[in-house]
């Protein structure tokens, strides 16, 4: 099943949304994130989302922020995604795909009325997320491609260079950020980058740090 999305600005998006805390999971505007849902609380979350706005907020737990194991503190910024594909499996799982709509800032977390977590959020400050390909001309595309080539060569990876060369800057940068193998803090820095140009710069910097380290461990932003 494919579900169409049509959010045009911050005022179109719901202020209270369910959130899915998942470390290392980075969703960006217009990006596609497949999810395999099997925990009962998240099955309930998807069912409820399908009955309303079809919006789920992807957000990373902050490992250094404290909180109980089942409800760790969250980073303040996440990204709302709309369920645009949905399928049931024979063993009770749900296979969904989220399409990124816009980033949000958590204002507060609601008292538990559901098995999953819900937050009051604001999209203020992220109005450019609603503008497809905003800021593409400022991206250092050659820098991004050079960092990718170096990373691919060092790690002996195979990539679709034809598809990469044809991708617009927004799709290229966001897809590489979402697919990157870097850690939670690095993913959060990419998410919180003020614009596409800065996100590309963060991606390049983190990739270069990883190449310099060359020991297979996660890079760390200072």
Automatic annotation (TrEMBL):
Cited SMART domains: LON (SM00464)
One Pfam assignment: LON_substr_bdg
Alphabetic keyword roster: Hydrolase, Protease
PROSITE patterns: LON_N
Keyword presence, Hydrolase: yes
One GO process term, biological-process aspect: proteolysis
Record carries keyword Repeat: no
Entry-linked InterPro entries: Lon_prtase_N (IPR003111), Lon_prtase_N_sf (IPR046336), PUA-like_sf (IPR015947)
Domain Lon N-terminal: 17-211
GO molecular function: peptidase activity
Domain of life where this protein originates: Bacteria
Protein name, as recorded: ATP-dependent protease
Biological source species: Methylobacterium brachythecii
């Amino acid at each position: 099943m494919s579900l169409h999305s049509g959010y045009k600005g911050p005022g179109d998006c719901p202020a209270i949304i369910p959130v899915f805390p998942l470390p290392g999971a980075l969703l960006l505007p217009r990006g596609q994130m497949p999810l395999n849902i099997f925990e009962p609380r998240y099955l309930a979350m998807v069912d409820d989302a399908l009955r309303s706005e079809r919006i789920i907020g992807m957000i990373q737990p902050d490992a250094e922020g404290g909180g109980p194991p089942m409800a760790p503190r969250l980073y303040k910024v996440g990204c709302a995604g709309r369920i645009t594909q949905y399928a049931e499996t024979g063993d009770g799982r749900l296979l969904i795909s989220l399409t990124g709509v816009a980033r949000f800032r958590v204002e507060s977390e609601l008292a538990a009325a559901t098995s999953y977590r819900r937050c009051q959020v604001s999209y203020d400050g992220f109005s450019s997320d609603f503008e497809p390909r905003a800021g593409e001309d400022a991206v250092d595309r050659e820098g991004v491609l050079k960092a990718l080539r170096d990373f691919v060569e060092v790690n002996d990876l195979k990539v679709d260079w034809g598809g990469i060369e044809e991708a617009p800057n927004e799709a290229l940068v966001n897809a590489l950020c979402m697919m990157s193998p870097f850690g939670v803090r690095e993913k959060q820095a990419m998410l919180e980058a003020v614009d596409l140009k800065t996100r590309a710069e963060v991606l390049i910097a983190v990739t270069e740090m990883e190449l310099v380290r060359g020991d297979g461990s996660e890079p760390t932003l200072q």
